[in-house]
Amino acid sequence: MIPVRRAVFLDRDGVLNHDRGYVSRPDNFDWLPGTMPALRSLQRAGWGLVVVTNQSGIARGLYGPAEYQNLSAWMQSELARNGIALDGVYHCPHLPDAPLAAWRRQCDCRKPAPGMLRRAARHLKLELSACVMVGDKPTDILAGRAAGVAACIRIADAIDHASCDVADAPADFTCATLADAARWLLEHEETRLA
Ligand SMILES: [Mg+2]
Ligand SMILES: [Zn+2]
Questions:
Q1: For burial by CB atoms within 10 Å, which of 110, 124, 140, 185 has the most?
Q2: Which ligand is nearest to the CA of 55?
Q3: How far is CA 17 from the centre of its chain?
């Protein structure tokens, strides 16, 4: 098998599923409409699919690492039932002022830092300059920029206004759904991203 060289980095909440705030169980994980076909179309076109998700709910003590892993395994099995195989799922459990000392850290992985994208690139042998970031918050776009990806796409319907304390970061393309993002990417990959 040819190793994946390029991937779409996907934020989770607000991109794949409704951002209900600290989603921790399958019963409050609601897929956004069109997620499955959008991911399938990207996968068919040769894009790796890598989830990069801030999970400060762990640092805040709202759910534990095991509960997070359970949800992540469930998410991947749902994707697999739909013919989609993620190349990686990376999460940041940290927070600089976490109530739980075990997770209190100024880490390099909490977006807007690019640590998760860099780690994935190392593990999966991705060319970051050929990758794309898709997220719903300015911190996602900033993480993509810091990692040096080719393009950053913002899903704007799901903006969490609580995140507006972060200076806004212009995206290369802003759209309402992951399906729009996938279409834009497939249309532009030859010309812009080659
Ligand atoms: Mg999000
Ligand atoms: Zn972290």
A1: 140
A2: 2
A3: 11
